[in-house]
Amino acid sequence: MQLTRRHFLATSAAAGSAILPGLALAQAGKPAQFKLKLGNDLPVTHSVNVRLKEAISAIAAETQGRVAIDLFPNNQLGSDSDMMSQIRSGALEMATFPGTVMSTLIPATAITGVGFAFSGYDKVWAAMDGAMGDHIRAAIAKVGLVPFATVWDNGFRQITSSSRPIRTPEDLKGFKIRVPVVPLWVSMFKTLGAAPVSLPLSEAYQALQTKVADGQENPLALIESAKFYEVQKFCSLTNHAWDGFWFVAGGKLWKSVPPDLQQIIARHINAAAKKQRDDIARANTELQKQLEGKGLVFNTVDNAAFQKVLGAAGFYAQAKEKFGPEAWALLQQYAGQIA
Question: What pTM, to 2 d.p., does this model score?
Fold first, then answer.
């Protein structure tokens, strides 16, 4: 289903608790016609949830109380796998999921996370707003979910460590690294010689604190909001993968919502996603300074060295076979030739 991307005049961010029950009820003074739960795995302070709060408030206002959306951040409704099951069964109405996490059900959503593929945001957004995004949206729709038009930014991912900086592929040998439950990244880090530990985001901090893992990998925004700097010493700017958040609705639920309300919800959610992209772009210039001030020591790496190891070990050949020639051609159309 094609959803509108028109911008709207955003309302101010709603202050208060992480869960925002009954915003529409409070504004209209009567029960909402549609009460929807929205879940994700991100801390309440993450830019995705800041912008979602704004969108929820704007949707409640414009629908005059017909739509009330409750936001449940930080895995309050369970792990990503739990929420995937809930949204497919109808127990959860809406969610944001990283594409790589959705790939356990929809393999095509992981292709944007192929290691060391995208070199910058110009290529990422051209792909996600273009034919590659359309290819992934079609795959999501096939499992009964409704993907909204605009992809949110999860950012380029970096490696942090409590034991040693990661400068070369050799530094990853035997390195216990927490990764999401994402087969693509488990395979990538195994190929690089690391020992990946697959855990939900909600368990990552404790795993680092108790040395179950020596390090982890995430975008700077999440490293900051999840306070990983408290249990890590080094941050290597590897830019080893980009991943986005897909905002999806349950198919049965979406069909039950009248077209006028669908349009309002989609317009505000998509506009919030555009603003969140800008948030991350602005924040990326400041986050390194903030994290350095909190004790993280940064270093850069030679990405080509990592890509060379992955290519020689057959990682890219296996990925091409997994995703298929059509998807791989789309990836290379936007990202460029991959070794």
Answer: 0.83
